[in-house]
Amino acid sequence: MSMAGNLRKVTGLDKVGGLRRMARLARRRPRVDLSHPARSPLGTAVVNCVTYHKGVRSPGGRDVIEAVKQVRKHDHGFVWLGLHEPTQREFAGIAELFDLHPLAVEDAVEAHQRPKLERYGDTLFAVFKTVCYVEHTELTATSEVVHTGEIMVFVGTDFVITVRHGRHGSLGPLREELEANPEQLAKGPAAVLHAIADHVVDDYLSVTDSVQTDIDQVETDVFAASGARVDPGRIYQLKRELLELKRAVAPLARPLLELTSRPIRVVEPEIQAYFRDVSDHLLRATEQIAAFDELLNSILQAHLAQVSVAQNEDMRKITAWAALIAVPTMVCGVYGMNFEHMPELHWKFGYPLVLGVIATGCITLYRGFKRNGWL
Description:
Layout: H1 3-11, H2 16-28, E1 46-53, E2 56-57, H3 64-74, E3 78-84, H4 88-98, H5 102-110, E4 116-120, E5 123-133, E6 146-155, E7 159-165, H6 172-179, H7 182-185, H8 189-222, H9 232-249, H10 253-261, H11 269-335, H12 350-371
Parallel strand pairs: 3-7
Antiparallel strand pairs: 1-2, 1-3, 4-5, 5-6, 6-7
Helix pairs in contact: 1-2, 1-3, 4-5, 8-9, 8-11, 9-11, 10-11, 11-12
């Protein structure tokens, strides 16, 4: 059967105009080999396509069109479609099948979006910034501490589409956790949206705990005996990475507020209560990041103060030694003048006397500087 015929049965478009439009769309898209297990009718970016009924995963693997047809035919359950970095061409069929708004599709394909929540009719579009901590043996001025990615989620009455960008943030473990709790999964696509939001925010807290370890290490190095010799580039690098983390975390507060306070058709009031818990966790992560930023500012100021103190101490030592050298320089300069009548020039012990005066003056100055901490 042609793709246009399948789509007609899925969407229920019986009008002639609708069939002609779908037929033209089918002719524009190339035919894909459906027998290949790694492919779907909508492109190779599909990671997984699963149908759930009353919170239980339906057995057997189906392609996207077949899964949607079964869900809409029996009017129960929902489809969870997962994709990873799809192209515009790969996403075109999915957008048509689920009637997704072109602006949301463009955001999902292009990525690089701020966390946000948008409503297009009966479809909810959410963007989450994912973060992960980059392990490193030693923090340097060029170390990457935080790596970010994105998860876009389309939520409808009978489907959830997740689009992931980046090398991390896999939703496979999350899917397994949800499948182990069918009562929660039976609450529909909104339960999946909550689980994703909770998963993303939990990662925020985990990353902030790891970043705190780096900040503690820098703080220890700065206030150690050799703190004045700490590379300030390490502190600046931590501030830059912390800023990237803040850009991922802070903007999510407003979307979560909408999910908890405003009525949304695809989000049941029972699920909104769960989003309040996620919002509390996000607030904790935001407060930690703000505290880290202030602490790094204090550490940087302390480091600059230590550098200034060290420079002052060096200048005092240089000044003290210059004063010690000034005594013999002055005496020798006086006796280097070509005057005929100068004191003790013809005395037998004149030379030892001058040397004694120089030594006594230098020793006196040295003991005074040493006692005052200048040397």
